[in-house]
Amino acid sequence: MKSVLPNIESVFSKLSKGYKIASPGAGVAVLSFFLPWFLVSCGGAEISLSGWDLVVGKSVRSDFMQSSFSGSPIVFVALLAGVSILALALLSARRGQLVKVLDGGAVCGLSSLALLIVLLVMAGLESQATEEGLMVAVDYQIGLWGVLFGYLASFVGGLLNLLSRATVTQAHSLPSPASLPSAHATNHDVF
Fold it and tell me: Is the dihedral angle over the CA atoms 26, 9, 105, 168 positive or is it negative?
């Protein structure tokens, strides 16, 4: 029985160098989205928040307090960015030249957007804890580091795609050797 999913080795071998870095990076970011990002401690109570918890929110109940963390749908855009990068890599492997315009710019843009969202969430969580005047400790967990690393790798892969595209464009715009003047040309040959 033939598999519906494409053979991963054949797809990966068709990818550009940039996508060979960007797509695993995006895969790590997508998987890390569901791992714990933050461990927030306050007065003996601890709450672990994943990227998904940051989207939908989470409530915590302990013996002496009940707290809830409201989600922010904008964090979902960071997850969609990783899925989009993976989709672009698959399209690039299947269609080749059809999506070359998107290979570098879109990957860099999506990675940058996701990184910006994640960094704003980090800053927002820290400032929210200090604004409320609570003795709150925020520890960064493996999921957050995976998302940051994954999107940084995707950004580097997008840059490689841009650089390889610029190199190909320059190679096509150079004049052919036949159209260049001969090295033995003298002044009377030129006029």
Answer: positive
The burial class, CB within 10 Å (0-12 / 13-18 / 19+), for 185 is: exposed
Q: In what order do the strands lie in the sheet with 45-50?
A: 45-50, 36-42, 136-140
DSSP at 96: G
Let me know if residue 121 belongs to a domain. Answer: yes
Q: Give a yes or no: residue 119 inside a domain.
A: yes
Radius of gyration of the chain (CA): 24
Nearest alpha-carbon partner for 60 in 46, 50, 71? 46
Whether residue 21 is contained in a domain is answered as yes
Predicted TM-score (pTM) of the model is: 0.75
pLDDT tens, position by position, 6-17:
566 666 677 778
Report the number of distinct structural domains present in the chain: 1
Q: How far is the C-alpha of 60 from the C-alpha of 47, rounded, in Å?
A: 7
Q: Which domain holds residue 19?
A: 15-153
